[in-house]
Amino acid sequence: MSLEKLQSEVRRLLKEKNAILLAHNYQLPEIQDVADLTGDSLDLSVRAAKTDAEVIVFCGVRFMAETAAVLCPDKTVILPRLDAGCEMADMIDADALRARKASLPGVPVVTYVNSTAEVKAESDICCTSANAIKVVNSLTDADVVLMTPDQNLARYTQRHTGKKIIYWEGYCPIHEILSVEDVLKAKAEHPGALFLAHPECRPEVIDLADAVRSTTGMLAFVREAKAEEFVIGTEVGLLYPLQRQNPMKRFYPASDKMLCEHMKLTRLGDVIAALSGLKNVVHVPEEVRIRAKKAVDRMLAVPRD
Ligand code: 13P
Ligand code: SF4
Fold it and tell me: Per CATH, the architecture of 3-85+263-283 is what?
């Protein structure tokens, strides 16, 4: 079947099933083009919490679909590829977090949404790369905070808060791979370009950035910037919406190695197969869901810009 026919079949099924398709900014172009909403983890969580649709098709990775299932127990949440995971989310589990909490009595836990529902359920509040600083600063009763699982997001947040941040030693392998040498090489090749880094990048890479943003934050920054060229320090999938939304500007990956295979698994055929049979439904046990929802809701209550 041609791409157009596959896309029109997805649209037909979405209507038939009263479904909405949410896609992360790193998804393949064929998926982004058919989505009702593309965005970063915060945009997608907010939209999932508000939708009237009966079915949510989540084109991203498992933790994102789980967050939607946590927020929307009365809806059917579909993850078209059940094998789309996140290496960073797998660097922590609920037992290990419970043990760490026992050694840090009274210290609130701020957990990045890139985590399982079980880990969220053990946390006081969630955050995304778009709101981590605001979330930490919202904890007015705490001088010390434990951030999990991304050490790079924690160390970036530490630069913007008076609180002491203790961190879990997880990381995103896709962002961790970006080195100072890669960035200097890209800057030398494109001397007029601004360098945008994701908070999941290493601190020495963050030091070189003209701006540090979530994926949707980068899209907003580029839209408003006078500059015409940008070196992009995040997963290469973001170059597609950047170029589509800014046809007159030029974008270069900071490194071609920044490719998350999990984010590239979902194809239109997977969406059609899952949606037509309402298969690959993501379930979160109710006892876990209720506790995880408290942490996500508390995050969503922190005012955005
Ligand atoms: P954001 O789109 O929220 O910046 O997240 C980046 C990421 O790594 C998601 O897996
Ligand atoms: Fe996880 Fe990194 Fe892939 Fe995002 S880019 S899904 S954080 S491994």
Answer: 3-Layer(aba) Sandwich (3.40)
